[in-house]
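Re: [ENG-882] Designed sequences occasionally contain unexpected residues at chain ends

Forwarding the minimal case from QA. Structure tokens:
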């Protein structure tokens, strides 16, 4: 009856009770106080797109979309979670569980309803991704589903835009959105080419020319990097993984300053549709396990361009992958953390060091390839990506929408035979086939995979070198049992050699020191 969309949630609860979430599509995190039944219900969307935190404080329950407001309620709640910190420092894992960097604060699990009453606490998981039919892939059907998803995400009565890189994900969103707007000029897309990163402007310009959209390159004015780092860390309340988070924050700030209130972004495309190189080995392994010889051979030979390796090297990679999952080894690729963290500190958390980075079994999912996609979606990747996206956009009053993580689109993608995901050795093969009449061929046939904008090496050994050196030389650092004694010398050496692998670890060290000393 009113003008506020929140009214729909209340009416849905009155009609359906806690099952109202079954009728919702999109991103949400909300609370309903049921006065009649004296029960408080907490709801979070299926993929965890919107944040929600919970804290038990004595007999009270504190709920918030941000950690900082919980800490403001009581400083006693600021005790750090040592296991979470070690996972971050040693493995680079963040948001891979409901635990946060604070011992008494946890995230509400995605796709859950948590109910509080005099009878106690009850939790219900209302959605799970369960691939069942394994249907034959149909490009037109896939494209229609994607178009319907984009159409829903374009609903807005405020200025809307897209981000546009030279990759398939953002290009697909922008191209389909441009077809669905009343006037192409109404759709605005923004791009950025940060320093020390791949220049993707040739592919960006192809999409702009073929769609006729309004487009702007944003020149990110980077203030003092140290000040920017503290600003972003304060927004997030927890450490982040890399300098790409800083550039994403700046882009969202400029977009917000230009009056854009809704932004469609391509996050989730790689995780839902199989875009990463590291997924290719479990894909080949699954085909071989299922004795799908013809598809295995086609993917093996087609994967040479994707991986930039010959077939014998790829086969050795498949063998190595099999050894990893059968032996239960950690599979940790970048082990430079152990050159910086003390042996004593590592021994205290041996179980985290030895925890496998790969799924230990296919379980009920059916194959290791889908098991990896699950892991990316629900623990190792997307939860952090969504936290980064939400904080960086909402800090500037921008609502960031992620069409690839619409739950009905995800269900549709996972209803197909897994062999279609990287068929013929092409990553995101289903999107490539579906978009062949929509995207420019040069974008459609790109085999290289561009990293997120930003360079840890550039930021660590350049912009923030003095700040990191200050931490390493401080008395509190030298007295800590966390670090090895030769860290200052090792850092100076890396500054001269521009060690890219350890730059990732120095970035985590900076994040940790900044967070703990600020507290």
């Amino acid at each position: 009856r009113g003008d506020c969309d929140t009214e729909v949630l209340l009416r849905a609860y009155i009609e359906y009770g806690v099952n109202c979430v079954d009728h919702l599509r999109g991103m949400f995190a909300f609370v309903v106080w049921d006065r009649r039944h004296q029960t408080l219900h907490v709801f979070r969307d299926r993929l965890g797109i919107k944040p929600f935190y919970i804290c038990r404080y004595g007999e009270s329950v504190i709920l918030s979309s941000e950690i900082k407001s919980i800490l403001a309620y009581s400083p006693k709640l600021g005790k750090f979670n040592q296991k979470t910190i070690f996972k971050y420092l040693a493995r680079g894992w963040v948001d891979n569980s409901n635990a946060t960097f604070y011992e008494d604060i946890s995230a509400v699990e995605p796709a859950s309803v948590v109910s509080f009453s005099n009878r106690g606490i009850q939790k219900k998981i209302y959605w799970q991704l369960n691939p069942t039919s394994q249907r034959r892939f149909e490009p037109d059907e896939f494209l229609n589903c994607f178009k319907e998803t984009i159409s829903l995400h374009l609903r807005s009565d405020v200025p809307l835009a897209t981000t546009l890189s030279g990759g398939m994900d953002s290009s697909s969103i922008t191209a389909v959105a441009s077809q669905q707007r009343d006037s192409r000029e109404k759709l605005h897309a923004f791009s950025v080419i940060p320093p020390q990163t791949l220049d993707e402007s040739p592919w960006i310009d192809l999409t702009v020319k073929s769609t006729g959209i309004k487009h702007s390159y944003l020149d990110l004015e980077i203030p003092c990097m140290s000040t920017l780092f503290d600003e972003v860390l304060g927004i997030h309340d927890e450490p982040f993984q890399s300098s790409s988070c800083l550039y994403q924050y700046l882009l969202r700030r400029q977009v917000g300053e230009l009056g854009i209130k809704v932004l469609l972004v391509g996050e989730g495309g790689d995780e839902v549709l199989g875009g990463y190189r590291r997924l290719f080995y479990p894909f080949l392994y699954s085909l071989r396990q299922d004795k799908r010889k013809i598809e295995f051979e086609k993917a093996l030979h087609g994967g040479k361009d994707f991986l930039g390796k010959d077939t014998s090297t790829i086969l050795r990679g498949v063998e190595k992958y099999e050894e990893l999952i059968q032996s239960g080894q950690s599979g940790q690729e970048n082990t430079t953390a152990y050159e910086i963290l003390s042996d004593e500190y590592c021994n205290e958390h041996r179980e985290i060091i030895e925890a496998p980075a790969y799924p230990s079994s296919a379980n009920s999912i059916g194959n290791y390839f889908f098991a990896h996609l699950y892991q990316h979606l629900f623990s190792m990747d997307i939860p952090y990506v969504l936290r980064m996206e939400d904080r960086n956009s909402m800090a500037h009053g921008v609502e960031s929408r992620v069409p690839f993580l619409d739950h009905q689109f995800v269900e549709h993608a996972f209803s197909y035979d897994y062999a279609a995901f990287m068929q013929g050795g092409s990553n995101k093969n289903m999107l490539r086939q579906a978009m062949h009449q929509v995207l420019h061929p040069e974008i459609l046939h790109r085999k290289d995979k561009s990293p997120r904008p930003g360079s840890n090496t550039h930021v660590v050994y350049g912009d923030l070198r003095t700040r990191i050196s200050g931490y390493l030389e401080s008395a509190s650092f030298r007295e800590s049992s966390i670090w090895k004694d030769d860290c200052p010398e090792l850092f100076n050496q890396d500054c001269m050699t521009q060690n890219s692998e350890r730059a990732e670890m120095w970035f985590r060290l900076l994040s940790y020191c900044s967070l703990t000393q600020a507290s």
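QA comment: On inspection the terminal residues look reasonable. The chain has a mean pLDDT of 92. Proposing we downgrade this to a documentation issue.
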